[in-house]
Design a protein that fits this description.
about 260 residues, alpha/beta, Rossmann fold, 10 helices, about 40% helix, globular
Length: about 260
């Protein structure tokens, strides 16, 4: 990522750290537990979560593994993560400030490397995927979760325009077909994959981006969302719910590993 975009990401998530971590959290305990189960963690394993945010996944998986580490670009997010770690009294976890394109660990360090709901903040996905692969052990696993953009070109463009209007650190969400092609090009075998339909409150989604009703960017984003509703032009499956709107994010979940030389 460019220095300018990294600064945009840090600015956005510094401003929204409290809302993101405490007041408008994305995942319920049940969803976190579902993600941990999808990864199939083992007691002996070392885990790394890239772009860990306030550390929810690391603190959920740590009791199931030997040690769990999280890295993030934004110090304020890491402060939240360490605060939650102290509250939960989890000893086998640690957090560090680091860039996903330059992961500060040696080759083949981890059994499981995850990156959750962060690829859409990255200008180029491949360098991050390659760094994740570098620090994964030869028989280790990669866990990647991210919202999926619609396959249709027109919906893809409008979907990402609305996302960027809400959050300037958003680059673009990838299509399912793009993820699968990227994994194949990098010699990864998808062990498990799923598409989960996550229903969300528009107002909570906006609050997590630091926006409240009446603010200019809230008004502009809501207007675009409402305009997209006839014919579902942006792929959010949006519907009015009182003074709120219910939207759907299709979330891709992938568990992959490096193909061996004989392709098995």
């Amino acid at each position: 990522m460019s220095k300018k975009h990294k600064e945009t990401v840090q600015k956005q998530f510094t401003k929204t750290a409290d809302a993101f971590a405490k007041f408008a959290v994305r995942d319920t305990p049940e969803v976190l537990a579902e993600k941990v189960e999808f990864a199939k963690p083992q007691p002996h394993e070392l885990v790394l979560d890239v772009a860990c945010g306030p550390g929810a996944f690391i603190l959920a998986i740590a009791p199931r593994v030997s040690f769990a580490s999280g890295i993030d670009l934004t110090p304020e997010m890491l402060r939240q993560a360490r605060e939650f770690q102290a509250e939960k009294q989890i000893a086998n976890a640690a957090f560090a400030c680091a860039d996903a394109e330059h992961i500060p660990f040696p080759d083949a360090s981890f059994d499981l490397v995850s990156c959750q709901l962060a690829f859409h903040h990255i200008t180029k996905a491949e360098p991050v995927l390659e760094e994740m692969m570098r620090v994964t052990k030869p028989q280790g696993r990669l866990l990647i979760l991210d919202p999926l953009a619609p396959e249709s070109d027109s919906k893809f463009e409008l979907f990402n325009q609305i996302e960027r209007l809400r959050d300037p650190s958003h680059t673009f969400s990838l299509r399912l077909t793009t993820f699968l092609s990227m994994f194949e090009e990098h010699g990864l075998e998808v062990l498990r994959q799923s598409v989960r339909r996550r229903q969300r409150s528009f107002n909570q989604w906006m609050r997590r981006a630091g926006l409240e009703p009446g603010q200019k960017r809230y008004i502009e984003t809501r207007k675009r969302m409402e305009e997209s509703m006839p014919g579902d032009k942006a792929g959010f499956s949006a519907r009015v719910d009182g003074d709120d709107i219910q939207i759907i994010h299709n979330e891709g979940v992938f568990l992959a590993r490096r193909l061996s030389e004989n392709g098995r």
